[in-house]
Sequence to fold (311 residues):
Amino acid sequence: MRKMIVLLVVAALGVWRLWPLPEAVIPPGQALPAAQAPATLRFALLKTGAATTLEAMVVAGGSLFRPTAIGHVAVLVEHPAGRFLFDSGLGTAIDTQFGTEMAFWAKPIFAYRQVRPAVQQLRDAGVDAPDRIFLSHAHWDHASALGDFPQAEVWVPDAERDTALHGRPPAFLPSQFSSPTLRWHPFRFDGPAVAGFPASLDLFGDGSVVLLPLPGHTAGSTGLLLSLADGRRYFFVGDTVWNHRGIDQPAPKFSISSLIVDADRDATWQAVLALRGLRDANPGLQIIPAHDSSVHDTLGYFPEYVTAAAR
Ligand SMILES: [Zn+2]
Fold:
């Protein structure tokens, strides 16, 4: 069975490579407003899982022969006014969740290696668990560890909570949302438009930690824009792209992967183009896909933090 699936996927990859990529009309991006970031704002990537696949599986036009490393990370953000996780990564219950609920045909496609759940990494380092988790979106590989943080509120836009509660495998695993202790905190982007995004949510009121809507991959997909005191800026864009090549070329995901995971393929592609325009208009802005280990590796992993350079 597994061989059959792999053969089918490789055949489909071969066919897809004969097709043209969609037209890439990059909209002009706008400059991001200045932030008043506190000197102690910092973040760390907690690597909770990994996988290796072919580049052609993650980005249209990618090589059929070049392997690409996938990471499942939770991002710990520490601001003097509050701490939170952005995505939860693969949690302590991932093997049970995946084993019992994932569609059989999707298991080879989404196979993972567990590294270490975020809750255990934090405990090992003597770091308190945060009391808020924001999700880039509620797919299984981002929401797996919610049950490991029962004290935390789970912040997602209304649309994402509704989608999650009605979601089905392979994208959503219902057991991840079935706990009666899960503390949803749906939110609205009730802040002003920012650099072409129609609305925003400035978490601490200083422009250093801003959530922006990125609908497409899911209805409530959310990006996290972090600005450090030294001026460096990072945009965590969830699964809008899986690989930095998606922005560089720009290119959508491999068509079959996109059919499986993107709720709205056109909206996802428009979001990719908008991100490219934003990056072009903001030199130095680093766009961080949720699963691109080649990008994560450059930032390092918890217990190492990315901090503002001392002045
Ligand atoms: Zn994902």
